[in-house]
Amino acid sequence: MGSFFLGRATLTSLSTRKKILFFLLGSSLVLFSLGIKYQKLNPSLNNPPAIASLGWGEGFYWFFSQEPEPIKNQETPLDGVKVTAAEWEEIKQRLPLGVMVENHFAARPVAGINAAEMVNEALVEGGITRFLLFFWREKPELVGPVRSLRTYYLDWLSGLPDALIMHIGYAQSSNPAADAWRYLQRYQIKTLGFGRNFWRDYSRRAPHNAYVSTPRLWEKAAQRGWAQGSSFRLWQFKADRELSQRPPKQEIKISWNGWGETPYAVRWVYQREKNIYQRFYASSPAQTYEMEEGKKVLQPIWAKNILVLLTPYSSANDGTARIVYQTLGQGKALVFRDGEVITGSWEKKERRQPLKILNSQGEEITLNRGRIWLMFVPPNSIIEY
Fold first, then answer.
1. In which domain, by residue range, is 58 found?
2. Can you tell me the distance from the alpha carbon of 201 to that of 144, in angstroms, rounded to the nearest whole number?
3. Mean pLDDT over each residue of the chain, to the nearest integer
4. Runs of H (alpha helix) within the chain
5. What predicted TM-score, i.e. pTM, was given to this entire model?
6. Is the peptide bond before 300 cis (omega within 30 degrees of 0)?
């Protein structure tokens, strides 16, 4: 008790000058602690100062002069990745863009796939598959090789409001259901496939050497008055499953039409740590060129969600090998995400309506945020998982 009263007596007898000194020392300690906490909560700060070396006045100024990290709370429609309000406003200055990219074995490695937010893969002639890559948030400078258009890709594209399409050539047919030229005219689709909107890489053999830049395509579209996108919803999204709850492995094998190990048979191998699926052709990793600091860099192709949609097709019966997919109606769907599979169904009632993926109760299946890969697989294909 004596010491306590002595302490009080000593403190109350301090001069005003000493009281101010104690206050300033205490403030410095508080600011130091707050600065350390702020730095830990914001590790993305560029070159934060060594806070311990700052005086209390400098620490006070540094702490209160920092701008908080912008909140990413705007969900982008194609793949659900969240962006800031400012980034979303910038994205909406352009329209969603689809680019037809081939998958012929002579065209590999392709370019730009890992920048695509969504990929539609389906058969064309001769058992070869082709990709429709969708971009809106991402703006890759190198995408290709670009090839010709089929009608069924336009039906899938039309589920996105006012989407643009880039292609080189198109199917012409005596069968209206297979005639992509008539589709473009009839439905007034915003095509960038006419004019010199691409370049060729003459180190590769034609026709597997035509490439595009998405920023240039959006510039061309803006010159035609095709800009100013709007909000819409394609999918419902969720957060990734916690690592501890993910299965150790999963593998998906798809043989198109049951044709066996052709160059277009696909394996997807689940990577538990990253919660992604890596693509393989037989035992070889599928690869894509992506631009990094102005250089082409090979990357393994991957996706966050694999949607296998059993979709019938028929011959165009026009004297060619062309086919026509059944794009409207419904069918069985297998949804792979988080290392698990969900059996459900796909549904598309009208051309301009987006695809819906439903579970056995008729509810929409939620997807992980990140690239969505849709594979329109004929019902007699062999699917192992």
1. 2-65
2. 10
3. 88
4. 2-12, 16-41, 56-65, 85-91, 151-157, 180-186, 214-223
5. 0.84
6. no
- Residues 230-241: pLDDT tens digits? 889 999 999 999
CA distance 316 to 304: 34
Same domain? 116 vs 9: no
The helices-and-strands tally (H runs, E runs) of the chain is: 7, 27
Please tell me whether residue 325 adopts helix, strand or coil conformation.
strand
Tokens of 122: 């389906």
Structure token digits, residue 301: 């192709």
How many structural domains compose the chain? 2
Q: What contacts 327, CB < 8 A, 6 or more positions away?
A: 152, 155, 156, 311, 348, 351
State whether 50 and 114 are in the same domain.
no
DSSP 69: P
Q: Same domain for 267 and 361?
A: yes
Which residue has better confidence, 283 or 199? 199
Tokens for 321, please give them: 């090998």
Task: Return the H-helix or E-strand segment holding 238.
Answer: strand 237-238
Whether 226 and 267 share a structural domain: yes
Task: Report d(CA 59, CA 53) in Å as an integer.
Answer: 9
